[in-house]
Specification:
Layout (H helix, E strand, L loop, with lengths): L10 E4 L3 E9 L2 E7 L9 H15 L5 H13 L2
Antiparallel strand pairs: 1-2, 2-3
Length: 79
Amino acid sequence: MLVLSRKKGQSVIIHDEIEITILETEGDTVKLGITAPRQVPILRKELLVSVKEMNRDAASQPVNLLHLSDELKKFKKNL
């Protein structure tokens, strides 16, 4: 891990196309501004971890295929 010290208004550039700027600091909170190409996803880590956990939980649940089939039939009727 690279550790840097930055002050308000200073930036870090990653791979010539992503810029992270320190916008504000207040106590133990830092407000960041991130400039990146649209195709680069930017996610908060806690959300990514949460979604991965939910997907893992959902994948481990048994699937009732008869119930799923009934639900698909209902869905098709409503189209």
